[in-house]
């Protein structure tokens, strides 16, 4: 009689594990869609509508800080009655502002990437659905959370599938899908204890993925979505950025005038 009850318990757990594996595969593909599609589209749209102004403001702020530092260096040399070499000053500024320039290049790349994505070729609705369906099948077959004993070759193939999904490369995904075939159920544990451990492992993984998704929705770049969904909020942000840009442009003009006045005080022979 005990054997009959054990058989019923193990049979029920096997069904539970099948459903949990299906749910985990679904959550994994939903998380990847959130990361590689939704968030990337949010970044692209934000950059095109607002981010380019932030880049312009950041560029102007660096220009202002550099000019301010240049003014300080000229003033220091004038105070000490030292020879003023603009070449030396520019070389010093170049070193001091290397990190700012690196960050500026990073932001410029973000603008370029967003523009490229906005002008790029997008999949049709049918192709997008096909890509997602194939990716979900590949996830069921190859994802390490669902297949802890996957071979190196299978892991390499899975990473190629992730990259194809990220790039919207439907042809590569078709090839990987054909190679892996429809998702199988994977190795099923045999003893009741192993079944219970596998069930607990899958439940914990599902919870982790769902928490990951919540975290993504409360962090950059998903949190930029608020500006895209609220037209009033977007216009206010654009207006504030344009106001700050104008102020920085005026400040830059003023500090250039101040530098020119300082240079007018120097003795001509001491200037290079």
Layout of secondary structure:
Layout: H1 2-79, H2 86-96, H3 98-118, H4 125-142, H5 152-167, H6 170-180, H7 192-217, H8 225-229, H9 231-264
Order of helices and strands: HHHHHHHHH
Mean pLDDT score: 86
State the shape: elongated
- The unreliable regions are 1-8, 268-272
Describe this protein's structure:
- The chain is mainly α.
- The protein is 81% helix and 0% strand.
- The chain has nine helices and no strands.
- Helix 1 (2-79) runs parallel beside helix 7 (192-217).
- It is elongated, with a radius of gyration of 29 Å.
- The model is unreliable at 1-8 and 268-272 (pLDDT under 50).
In short:
By secondary structure, the protein is an all-alpha fold. It contains nine helices and no strands.
């Amino acid at each position: 009689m005990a054997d009959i009850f054990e058989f019923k318990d193990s049979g029920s757990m096997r069904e539970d594990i099948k459903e949990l594996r299906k749910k985990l595969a679904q959550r994994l593909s939903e998380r990847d869609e959130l990361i590689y599609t939704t968030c990337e589209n949010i970044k692209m749209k934000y950059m095109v509508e607002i981010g380019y102004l932030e880049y312009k403001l950041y560029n102007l702020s660096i220009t202002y800080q550099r000019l301010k530092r240049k003014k300080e260096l000229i003033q220091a040399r004038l105070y000490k009655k030292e020879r003023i070499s603009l070449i030396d000053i520019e070389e010093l500024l170049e070193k001091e502002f290397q990190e700012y320039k690196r960050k500026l290049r990073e932001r410029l790349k973000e603008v370029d990437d967003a523009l490229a994505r906005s002008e790029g070729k997008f999949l049709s609705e049918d192709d997008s659905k096909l890509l997602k369906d194939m990716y979900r099948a590949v996830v069921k077959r190859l994802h390490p959370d669902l297949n802890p004993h996957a071979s190196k070759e299978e892991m390499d193939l899975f990473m190629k599938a992730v990259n194809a999904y990220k790039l919207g490369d439907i042809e590569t995904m078709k090839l990987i899908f054909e190679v892996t075939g429809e998702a199988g159920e994977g190795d099923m544990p045999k003893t009741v204890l192993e079944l219970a451990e596998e069930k607990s492992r899958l439940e914990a993984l599902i919870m982790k993925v769902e928490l990951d998704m919540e975290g993504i929705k409360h962090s950059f770049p998903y949190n930029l979505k608020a500006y895209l969904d609220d037209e009033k909020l977007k216009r206010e942000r654009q207006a504030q950025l344009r106001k700050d840009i104008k102020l920085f442009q005026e400040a830059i003009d003023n500090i250039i005038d101040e530098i020119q006045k300082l240079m007018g005080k120097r003795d001509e022979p001491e200037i290079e």
